[in-house]
Amino acid sequence: MPASSPLVAVPADIRDFANYRWHASPDTYLKALVGVAGTTPVIVPAMAGEIDLAAILERVDGVMTTGSASNVHPGRYGVAPSPSFEPYDPDRDDLTARLIEESVGRGLPLLAICRGHQELNVAFGGTLATEIQEIDGRMDHRAITHEDQRERYATRHDVAVADGGLLATIVGAGPIKVNSLHRQAIDRLGDGLRVEASAPDGTIEAVSVEGAKAFALGVQWHPEFWATSDAPSAAIFEAFGAACRAHRDARGRS
After folding, report:
1. Residue 2 pLDDT > 60
2. Any domain includes 229
3. Of the chain's two ends, which shows fewer C-beta atoms within 10 Å, N or C?
């Protein structure tokens, strides 16, 4: 009998639309999980205090935290709220904090993208800086204004890949060109995280978890958007999928 597709938990964002509250996840991430990683996404509702999260994590083979229009609430890393940090999604914050902690602790493969990359840093005690384009010496990492999403998500600058790290084993020595679209970024690096890639202005663009039991990578850019056509983007999802299949197979033998 063929092995089943690995299941990947994906945290939902909260969206209020047409007098309903929705638990939703962006389509591009889900398609990359299915079409490139070869996995089956399972959207987890942002109800961390009401659902049996342990039961979900016992059944899945990986966790992916996505980008979002919202930002991590600054109270989670000791900074006062400000309009420049908005909008927020505290229900997602609660869920992803649990998912990241549990996935690393359980040895579940973890891929953290954009907001998820920032959530990973905060989960390990790090902080974030906002409106980095206003900081002297920093590039403007924000998306351009354009009606075509392909233009908005086009790769625009290189990142240097750290020697000997997890990312280098996936994409090679680099540099690689990325579509890094953000106005927040890692400020103080979280304890136990390793820098895997940096932008020319020094912005930390990728991290891994030192000593992790399984694949644990965070990237500030958006590999999901070009996962079917850009080699480094595809390689990241393929590596994550392989890690999820390895976890599935090991779980089946236990």
Report:
1. no
2. yes
3. N
Instruction: Please tell me the pTM assigned to this model.
Output: 0.93
Catalytic residue among 141, 196, 224, 247: 224
Catalytic option among 114, 117, 141, 196: 114
Count of domains forming the chain = 1
Q: Please give the mean pLDDT across all residues of the chain.
A: 91
Burial class (CB in 10 A: 0-12, 13-18, 19+), 32: buried
Q: Is the pLDDT of residue 254 over 60?
A: no
Report the CATH number at residue 90.
3.40.50.880
User: 16, 70, 66, 67: which is closest to 41 by C-alpha?
Assistant: 66
- Provide the residue range defining the domain that includes 233: 7-253
Q: Is 222 a catalytic residue?
A: yes
Q: Could you confirm whether 205 is annotated as catalytic?
A: no
Residue 1 lies in a domain: no
- Residue predicted with more confidence, 143 or 5: 5
90-108 residues labelled b (16+ CB within 10 A) or e (exposed): ebbbbbbbbbbebbbebeb
Domain assignment present for 2: no
174-214 pLDDT, tens per residue?
Answer: 799 998 877 788 999 999 999 999 999 889 999 999 999 99
244 in catalytic set = no
- Check pLDDT > 50 for residue 1: no
